Amino acid sequence: MGILNGLLGKVKNKPKEEKKIPWIPLVTLDQLKEIKKKSNVKTQVVFKHSVTCGISRMVLNTFVNSHDFTAEEIDLYYLDLHSHREVSNETGYTFQVIHQSPQLLVIKNGEVIAHGSHGNVNGIDLNEYV
Questions:
Q1: pLDDT of residue 73 exceeding 70
Q2: What CATH number corresponds to the domain at position 112?
């Protein structure tokens, strides 16, 4: 009878709970200095995202669904590279990585200790760096 109820619309599906990541918007150049400094105490992560790229959206969704970090464990920065092009460019200079999108940077002690782009973003196990 459960199948019939489902087919006839009598059983409502529970809405899927949206997962929340404690993102910190990366929007200013001064934040890059702050990230570098804070990385001496706690792992800092920057997710560079292109809002116009389907691959970037797919990688971001997988990233969000794969992690359950709290703000106490790790600082997760979200960079919309189209809205903040200057910050995106300076991120590459500051941390000595070639710009890619999507891109994930893991920063400890002022330096990038891991990074990946496209499909490699989700290959980085952030648990190793917490």
A1: yes
A2: 3.40.30.10
